[in-house]
């Protein structure tokens, strides 16, 4: 009973390490595509494990897992065949090369048994590059999906404090800032998002991190540029997150 509990404990620790790793890679590349550092947003340890679900439920991960499971099944079958004499295995009874093949397999098995800890460490390390590749691929794919379909992200609107400079409701933008300024239209949308196109990407202690993404342009056949804003919480009097009807 004690050995079983120890095995379960060790397996749980290893699984948690893998889950945390793929979640960290996913979050790093997903937010990195938006130009957001993971250090700039609130993500605790438990949330990282939740993010790992995005990777574990992906087609890429499940395909790789199926391939890995197939190899394990083949190894189990070979191990079972090694333990049985050819006379017990009908299709191997007249196979002259079975004894030689079995001898080779036994030698391989003995090698792995003798150096099982080293082999386990090597295999465990070799898994990391593949998990890294899958997690990055899923993160970039989800980034593209969220830009193409922003309905996956919650709408957010703001009312700003009187001392929030250009964002202040007391400031008339047309008189305070030139139309030629590159940020003129951006500030206008942030102050009054009548089309509800602003989407909340995340937040930190200091900022609301917001995405402006116009819909896919069917005539042009491409997605317009998107913009990410870091809105200082000190300037915000009220933030409203819109929950859509189900």
What would you note in describing this structure?
With 246 residues, the protein is of the alpha+beta class. The chain folds into two domains: 2-148, no CATH class; 151-242, no CATH class. It contains seven helices and five strands, in the order H-H-H-H-H-E-H-H-E-E-E-E. It has helices at residues 2-33, 45-56, 59-82, 98-114, 116-148, 173-176, 184-191, and strands spanning 155-160, 198-203, 207-213, 226-232, 236-242. The strands form two sheets. The chain has a three-stranded antiparallel sheet with strand order 2-3-4, with no helix packed on it. A two-stranded antiparallel sheet has the order 1-5. A hairpin with a 3-residue loop joins strand 2 and strand 3. The longest helix has 33 residues, at 116-148. 13% of the residues are buried.
Radius of gyration: 28 Å
In terms of quaternary structure, the protein is single chain
Low-confidence stretches: 88-92
Helical/strand content category: alpha+beta
Q: How many distinct beta strands?
A: 5
Mean pLDDT: 83
Number of domains: 2
- The sequence of SSEs as H and E is HHHHHEHHEEEE
- Overall 3D geometry? elongated
Q: Helix amount, in percent?
A: 40-55%
Beta content: 5-15%
Number of helices: 7
């Amino acid at each position: 009973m004690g050995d079983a509990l120890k095995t379960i404990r060790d397996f749980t620790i290893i699984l948690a390490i893998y889950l945390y790793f793929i979640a960290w890679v996913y979050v790093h590349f997903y937010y990195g595509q938006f130009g957001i550092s993971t250090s700039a947003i609130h993500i605790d340890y438990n949330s990282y494990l939740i993010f790992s679900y995005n990777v574990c439920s992906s087609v890429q991960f499940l395909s790789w897992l199926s391939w890995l499971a197939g190899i394990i099944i083949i190894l189990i079958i070979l191990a079972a065949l090694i333990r049985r004499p050819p006379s017990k295995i009908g299709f191997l009874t007249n196979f002259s090369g079975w004894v030689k093949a079995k001898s080779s397999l036994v030698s391989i098995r003995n090698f792995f048994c003798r150096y099982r800890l080293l082999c386990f460490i090597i295999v465990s390390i070799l898994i990391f590059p593949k998990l890294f590749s899958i997690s990055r691929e899923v993160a970039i794919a989800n980034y593209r999906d969220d830009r193409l379909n922003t309905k996956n992200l919650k709408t957010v609107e703001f009312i700003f404090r009187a001392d929030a400079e250009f964002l202040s409701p007391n400031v008339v933008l047309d008189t305070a800032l030139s139309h030629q300024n590159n940020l003129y239209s951006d500030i206008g949308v942030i102050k009054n998002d009548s089309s509800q196109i602003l989407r909340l990407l995340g937040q930190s202690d200091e900022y609301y991190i917001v995405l402006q993404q116009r819909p896919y342009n069917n005539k042009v056949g491409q997605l317009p540029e998107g913009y990410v804003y870091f809105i200082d919480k000190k300037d915000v009097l009220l933030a409203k997150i819109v929950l859509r009807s189900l």
